[in-house]
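Researcher: Next sequence.
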Amino acid sequence: MDFKDLFSLQSDIYLKARPTYPEELFDYLMSISPSNELCWDCATGNGQAAISLSKHFKKIIATDGSEKQIANAIKRENIEYRVGIAEQSGLENNSVDLITVATAAHWFNHDMFYKESKRVAKPNGILSVWTYSSATISIKINEVMEWFAYTYLHDYWPDGRWHVRNKYETLPFPFEPIHTPDFFCHANLNKQQWLNYVMSWSSYTNYVTKHKIDPIEILLPKLNLLWNDNETKLVIWPLHLKCARLNTGEK
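Model: Next structure:
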């Protein structure tokens, strides 16, 4: 299969700028997994989710189609990083307790990925996919970022990103979903840290690649009116989680 590499160009800033996931999420995933032997963290990126998962599982196999993302991934003794795509994992049949996809399932060939997930999952193994949607900072900053992300950069988002915009409600998920708690990512950021996060967007990279200019120059005059350089603000991203139990034996 072809792999759409959307983040290698900004893999360094992706590692530094993306929000971390709450530890309560991984506590929950461990609580519903059949055992803690093996987790497949698919599309691991820089290994952000894999690091938290490594505290709960004896072994993590973390795969990503981007060699640069894997090269930048955070190392741990019980994490094995591999370059590989979601639809062809190379894992053994019926070997995995938990399959996780953190903020990436919207890029996949869903039919092929779900077939692969059922192949590698143990009986009653858990498939878990999640994303975060637009951050909340303040009413006025939210309005500016909504305009920048979905009006000014509207045409520069890859197609799969609209599943994120729709909070994964439109993401294909042909399984009986497990009812899950609500989770949120939190970070206290200054303005430059927030701009680093914006620069990790696929739409930002696509805009710069096409026009050879930085769209942050369009955003900054509006943002400067609302956010001082030395000011830190609480940023909250709601998580949208889908979980299912695979290979249950039901017809």
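Model: Confidence is low (pLDDT under 50) at residues 5-9. The longest strand covers residues 232-246.
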